[in-house]
């Protein structure tokens, strides 16, 4: 068994697609109309056959409440691995990304947290 798709709730699919592809650099794999919304998945450019990230609309009240509460508590919705967290931090800062936590060493890990502009905090981590 393996993970093939994981999802993240977003307030606006089009805005999220732009942020996750143009700012973060993920590659769009699927963009299929599904009625009112779309099935939009992205993959890492380094592993285009790997796990897909689904930009899931948060139109369900439970999804909105979940997203709102974890954001308010400062809990990242997901985590992405990077080779150099300091370099990625600087790159994203130059693109106007707002961080809630600068690169911070925690044991053997270095991590940072930013706002994805779509209702989520995202953690990047260097192991």
From TrEMBL:
InterPro entries associated with the record: Glyas_Bleomycin-R_OHBP_Dase, Glyas_Fos-R_dOase_dom, VOC_core
Record keywords, A-Z: Dioxygenase, Lyase, Oxidoreductase
VOC domain sequence ranges: 1-127
PROSITE patterns the UniProt entry points to: VOC
GO MF term list: dioxygenase activity; lyase activity
A family per Pfam: Glyoxalase
Name the UniProt record assigns to this protein: Catechol 2,3-dioxygenase-like lactoylglutathione lyase family enzyme
């Amino acid at each position: 068994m393996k993970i093939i798709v994981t999802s993240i709730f977003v307030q606006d699919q089009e805005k999220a697609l732009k942020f996750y592809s143009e700012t973060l650099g993920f590659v769009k794999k699927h963009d299929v109309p599904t009625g009112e919304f779309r099935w939009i998945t992205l993959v890492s450019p380094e592993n285009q056959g790997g796990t897909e990230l689904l930009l899931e609309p948060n139109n369900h009240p439970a999804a909105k409440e979940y997203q709102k509460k974890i954001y308010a508590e400062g809990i990242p919705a997901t985590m992405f691995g990077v080779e150099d967290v300091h370099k990625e931090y600087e790159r994203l800062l130059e693109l106007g990304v707002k961080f809630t936590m600068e690169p911070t060493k925690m044991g053997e890990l270095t991590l940072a947290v930013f706002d994805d502009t779509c209702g989520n905090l995202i953690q990047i981590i260097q192991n």
